Amino acid sequence: LEKMTDLVAVWEVALSDGVHKIEFEHGTTSGKRVVYVDGKVEIRKDWMFKLVGKETFPVGAGKTKATINIDAVSGFAYEYTLEIDGKSLKKYMENRSKTTNTWILILGGTDYRIVLEKDTMDVWCNGQKMETAGEFVEDGTETHFSVDDHSCCIKAVSSGKRKEGIIHTLIVDDREIPEAVE
């Protein structure tokens, strides 16, 4: 395995299908640019005259658009910023916390990361989009699915407060799972 000698930046991006690691190599003498997503080379440019600019590439199952911006700060110093879907990583993650719910749990010794996309009601578990069955119940809706022979249900109930909106709760085998903060 080639040693990453020009590694200048590493980011972790939490998407519905999992947390992805983005690594960026920038050879400031050769202009080399290498982008790794989860350890795999996504972009490799071995020789470039222009040391500043941007590299755009897909991340994850949903092929989310990511862009690394390379800016000269002073002399031979560079700044690297990551944008996801056209927003700074910080803004993207803040927005994401409003549009998704994430739960982390252990079932039978296995770690699971379950994500609900509130706009589509899609449920993801460890990178796989789950088959779900939704039903209306007296106080809201329930989205049913199973993980490894465990029955799971995401209950959506109105908080009764406009600012809070709908409260989503994950119940696995009749046990409420607390929401994770990513």
Describe the structure.
- The protein is mainly beta and 182 residues long.
- It folds into 2 domains: 7-85, Lipocalin; 97-177, Lipocalin.
- It has 1 helix and 17 strands.
- A hairpin with a 2-residue loop joins β16 (166-172) and β17.
- The two termini are 31 Å apart.
Write the layout of secondary structure elements.
Layout: E1 7-15, E2 18-26, E3 33-37, E4 40-45, E5 53-59, E6 64-74, E7 77-84, E8 87-88, H1 89-99, E9 100-107, E10 110-117, E11 122-125, E12 128-129, E13 133-137, E14 140-147, E15 150-158, E16 166-172, E17 175-177
Antiparallel strand pairs: 1-2, 2-3, 3-4, 5-6, 6-7, 7-8, 9-10, 10-11, 11-12, 13-14, 14-15, 15-16, 16-17
InterPro entries: FAIM1, FAIM1_dom_sf
Keywords: Apoptosis, Cytoplasm
Organism: Nyctibius grandis
Structure in a nutshell:
The protein has one helix spanning 89-99; strands at 7-15, 18-26, 33-37, 40-45, 53-59, 64-74, 77-84, 87-88, 100-107, 110-117, 122-125, 128-129, 133-137, 140-147, 150-158, 166-172, 175-177.
